[in-house]
UniProtKB/TrEMBL annotation:
Lineage of source species: Bacteria, Bacillati, Actinomycetota, Actinomycetes, Micromonosporales
Protein name per the record: Succinate dehydrogenase / fumarate reductase iron-sulfur subunit
All residue ranges annotated as the 2Fe-2S ferredoxin-type domain in the record: 5-92
Keywords, comma-separated and alphabetical: 2Fe-2S, 4Fe-4S, Iron, Iron-sulfur, Metal-binding, Oxidoreductase
GO molecular function, one term: metal ion binding
Gene Ontology biological-process entries: respiratory electron transport chain; tricarboxylic acid cycle
Organism: Krasilnikovia cinnamomea
Amino acid sequence: MGTKRHFRVWRGDESGGEIQDYDVEVNEGEVVLDIIHRIQATQSPDLACRWNCKAGKCGSCSMEINGMPKLGCMTRMSTFEANETVTITPLRTFPVIRDLVTDVSFNYEKARETPAFAPPAGVKPGQYRMQQVDVERSQEFRKCIECYLCQNTCHVVRDHEENKPEFSGPRFFIRAAELDMHPLDARTDRKEFAQASMGLGYCNITKCCTEVCPEHIKITDNGIIPMKERVVDRRYDPLVWLGRKIFRRDQLESGHAGEMTPSVTAGVTGVAAGLGPSGARPPQGPPLGPDGRMEVSELIASNAGGPSPFGDDQEFPLPGSELTYRHPAPGKDAAPPSSH
């Protein structure tokens, strides 16, 4: 037998609404989404709530619980005090359709505006080869379930509706960061596009998005901040600014269009960190333009630039002789013939 608990749920639509009070039975082990379903079953069958998997993997049941953006299916009732009133409201950043259901089409519009992965020229699907360390760099961002809690809590659009046309939000910043780190992505302007067209400069890295992520993605530390650093390196470095005043644009940008910036994240090693196969950075001079001149940003660099993410002597795609995976031979796992 459960215990009676007090809940306050927002009811209404785009024209307005109000908080309604419910006394609902709560059983051991239940989550907030269970309570929503019980209210629907016993008191308000017209209560609207979006949900799907009830396993924290579809991102559908996003709502605000006691003012904090959360997934209803992953918020256990045991986390609240026995006499605590639980207030459930729709996502504040997006227009309300009805009750707890909001119109999140803003996010799908921004997804369409984000440039997709660009396959490398001359390489067919099935021939892509990546170092494991490069896979690990962007794998974290692939865990996103698109619950849009990060989008909802970001104050850039939460408190400023007028910013929505220019601002894509943290969910799509990590998408851009993932592709910027991807060694097989043919586009070389991910960070510049994020700055110019996605509103990366609006973000002041308060880490609100990271705090509410149900997949515990380090959105700010591993995605947004590195992207901002790479933008600053190329666009706002005072020496680069001076170089733009002295040299032509093609002199400044030659030799760097296809390179990936070596990672500076702790724990990243190998080729992705700008290191050779032995783990030590090989001696290498700074890159030169077609006219033999160094970029002005290299004049005071303490270390020479790293090699290509694929290594200096890497053949691409990898020849079959260097692949570590082999398909099992036909019949390899078949049962041996009977001796009878």
